[in-house]
Amino acid sequence: MTTATKNIQIKEIADGQAIHDLFLVREINRGETKAGKPYLSLVLMDASGEISGRVWENAEQLMGECPSGAIVAVAGQAQAYKGILQLRIDSLTRVAESEVDLALFVPSTKGNVSQMAKELVKLVGSVENPFLKELLLTLFGERKLMADMKKAPAAKAMHHAYVGGLLEHTLAVARLAESICTLYPTLDRSLLITGALLHDIGKLKEFSFDSFPFEYSDRGRLVGHMVLGIEMIQEKIKGISGFPEELGDRLKHLILSHHGRHEFGSPSLPMMQEAFALNFLDDLDAKINYLDRLAGQVKGEGYQWTEFQRNLERFLFVKGHQADDGSSPRDQGQDNGVDPRQRTLFGL
Hints:
The chain has about 350 residues and is α+β, with helices and mostly antiparallel strands. It folds into three domains: about 10-105, CATH 2.40.50.140; about 115-290, Hypothetical protein af1432; about 295-345, no CATH class. It has eleven helices and nine strands. The protein has helices at about 60-65, 115-125, 130-140, 145-150, 165-185, 190-200, 205, 220-225, 225-235, 245-255, 275-295; strands at about 20-30, 40-45, 50-55, 70-80, 85-95, 205-210, 215, 300-305, 315-320. The strands form three sheets. It has a five-stranded mixed barrel. Strands 6-7 form a two-stranded antiparallel ribbon. Helix 2 runs antiparallel to helix 3 (about 130-140), helix 2 runs parallel beside helix 5 (about 165-185) and helix 6 (about 190-200) crosses helix 11 (about 275-295). It is elongated, with a radius of gyration of 22 Å. The model is unreliable at about 330-348 (pLDDT under 50).
């Protein structure tokens, strides 16, 4: 039964505003001032976005009481520091999850998850190559895989970093792939659609979904989603009688090269038409999603400049609008502890 109420969304907080509200602790870290006094550095979130905060008093005690994933009642004040809004936190009290509606704190896709899943299955059915179709049916026919697909983010930060983001991103890339196949008939449609549907499948093992906020699994950090995806694909290929080895290699090439460059995390460079196409389409959807989230965070309507986006090494000129969903790209003035593999589409 929910009793605690939330009064303001993070995207509505203004410089100088007094804050007395509930937030989810996404990250919490202990630091020390030059004088050796401990303090806490936090990233707080709700369904509308994220904001950094500092706690200067009782840091040692609060560190244990308010771990990552906890809902906390915060009292403090919003302050702009070097152009970035953050909170000076005066008090921090943990609130039981049973007393709040968690949907207020977890950003999610605004797409209809069930309809998106049905469209994905329809695309699987449209693949003409029998081996690739059987591979897709075998993978997406697993109940747990599809359940994870519906809640997984596409990344920990940057693009589609919210519940259902992986399904939304995968479907968007597959739609784009289907569209360009009519423009470029020399493309192998079955291969490109399959590559689009499976290019990020390894993220289902890269992240742990036991609790929110989702974190990297041990294997996710050690191996990365592209190699994990190849392992998942190869395991299913072994069970498909007569699956051509050369076809499997071409599909794996699409997966391993879809970030486009070695320095962006791809073990292989694109060497086929379909690989180039998948790289461009994946990057296109990621960047459009990222800019759209930023546009939903600026104040007012009309074109406006964002804060400096360090991951893109530029300011962005976006057209303000009311956000379609509660998520927003994380503050790019900070590193935020994001694994470098999650920044590859953004030139870092």
